[in-house]
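#help-structures
NK: newbie question, is this the right format to request a structure? protein is Acyl-coenzyme A dehydrogenase
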Amino acid sequence: MLTLLLVILAVVGLLIIMRREAGASAALTLLGILGLVGLLVDATFIGVVLLIGAIAVAAAGLPALRKQWLTPRVFNIFKKVAPKVSDTERTALEAGSVSWDGELFSGKPQWSKLLSYTDEGLREDEQAFLDIQCAKAAGMCNAWDIAQERADLPQQLWDYLKKEGFFGMIIPKEYGGLGFSAKAQSMALQKLSANETLMVTVGVPNSLGPGELLLKYGTEEQKNHYLPRLADGREIPCFGLTGPRAGSDATSLPDVGVVCKEVIDGKEVLGLRLTFEKRWITLAPIATVVGLAFRLFDPEKLLGNEEDRGITLALIPRDTQGMEIGRRHHPIGSPFMNGPIKGVDVFVPLDTIIGGEDMIGQGWRMLVECLSIGRCITLPSGATGTARYALGWSGGFTRVRRQFNVPVAEMEGVQEPLARMAALAYISQATVYQTANLIDHGEKPAVPSAILKSQLTEFQRVLLSDAMDVHGGKAVTLGPRNYLGIGYSANPVAITVEGANIMTRNLMIFGQGAIRCHPYVLDELAAKDANDIKAFDKAFFSHAGLIFGNAARAFTMGLGFGKESVPFDGPAAAYAQDIARLSAGFGLCADAAMASLGSALKKREMLSARLGDVLSNLYLASMVLKQWQAGEKVEGEDALLHYSCRFLLHRAEQAFVEIFDNLPNRALGRVLNAIVMPTGRRWDKPHDDLARDIAKRVSTHSALRTKLLQNTWDADDGEQPNPLARYNALLVDYDRAEAIYRTVNKAYAKGELPQTALHPEARVEVAFEKGLISEEETVFMREFETQVLEMLTVDDFAYDAFAINKDTLIDHNAKKAAPIHQQQTENAK
């Protein structure tokens, strides 16, 4: 009995010490005291075992002892197995900043740090721009007209975008721009997502490109010349990075610049001779100034002793002699301006280099530092805006579309995707807004930018697919009335650009985060490179303490003990506590994967992707809780919070299971499973009762629907019809209409109305004649059904409308000439 008691005390005590990362001294003291107690109470065997454990802890844990024998051996092994970090990888790792992603990597997230990023909201001028200019721009768009009729935005819309400064949202006011915050820029792009071509056209100049690069790295002369012209649309920028052989691997640029001298107007000018071929460059066909990435060489050593000067960026006017520009690519589903740029031996002066001579060779650093912000905003905001509109359209359509005498929104097969759409929209809104708020506080979130880009555009893929499903024939029939189909077909663009999602998920989120966000790995690698054993000892054994701490935290919280104290009230508290539990498990699994696989982890992309999935879902769930804590709640929002958090935590646990099942070291996988999930999985998929509740609210005129559709173009005041405004108007009147539907349909079922009254309009008229409904109700239903039918109607066209070459058109119903033998018979008669 005494032996068992000592074992229990030792295990519990060590778990407490490990959780608190109290260090070797505390563990040594505990084991030593219990060992001596064991000897004193005649529990000799366990006493000796505990004292041996104390000696082992002292030898391996006390700095004065371990530095004599253990640290040198570990250091030598580490230098052999640690992954080699290339210069380009190091540049990417050092770009940006670490904030909440680092907390999740630590395994012990401090929620107070996340909540310390206060939100001041939008400025008055920013909100006014959303309400007025963004609404007017959205109101000029019709997807069919833009995609099929003109393959471009209307001229009046281009003029309006330039006049109102849409291309200068990120440019400070002193240069003539709008000087918007990251949150305002994001909200503007969400509102403009009523049309994907409009969103891309405005988003790209305000993302990675000449404007942002000039702001951060340009010379004063470059800023003063270009920024005012970019702000008011006199200059339209594009940026040439990708090409036929350099897409995701942007550092392998085959485009070359050579330092040389050229005689121009009788004067010798120092400059560059460029040869390049770029593809998939947004705005290139109409750009007036081209940002260009290339590898610079100085064979004559005109600038110094180095021949290979590295990746460099330049800004080249469109009319530069020798540059081929103006042709277009045809992006799937959306005619936004996109095309190739080519040039052979194109000469430009040295002052075209962005930032001047001092920034030669700094192009890769410049790009990754800018990308950490731009990738957080443009495509994630577009995906979030699309989610708002798709949800609004789908909720409205499924409520007014009736089958089997009920709205299809009442059918559980439709309620399931509606609820999923609402949750994905809710998660997206919270994540993109709160991450933009981090940016407004000075953060440059490199790893979150990869999370947002890949996760939210994948959400967009699911959302649009669900929207297509619930719309049925309405969405698969193209034409001016179809507000959904063209955007659905354009979704692969968002999946592919700014780092294809396959690459981002498999290589970047965990691959970059494992080093960049980990509390100690970067220090360990730096100590290795500097051959600094003292620094290595400090970092490595702090790292070891973290591993033991995460194991203890994950295990005890998995058993339901020692839940973290969190600054959340109500339903959010339990989710925050479980994010902390899974964060500890993630930190442990990340370290286990790195330790067991070493540099081979780079090639285990599927395993890296699953580790990234855990981090991604924990990050998204954290942003949902931050938004919930900060925002004003509406009726029904708690159901959406439950659905969203359960959805994300279920996905996180699924990723854990796949990690355990696929670690090459199967024993390690089983041990991790037992530590991280000692009682099994905790989170099921969201339950059906939540889906039913959410689906009803987003398909009716409710406070929750109104909140989810905030900052959309929802007024019928544009040059083009607004389907969202029309659905909203129908939902306002729907309860009244539903009561009349019930009266009329009940009478029809009882035989009180003639069986020939098959259409709703006919039943209403007969019901009025029979006195079942009033004249006022009849007038109301006539108008209501007219509006419903308009929203259900699809377009049709002339038979030859789609044949570009009319000469190839086949008239399948033309009168065919009679066979020869029949003509001969008729002639004989």
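mod (FA): yep, format's fine, and the tokens are attached above. The longest helix spans residues 363-400.
NK: thank you!
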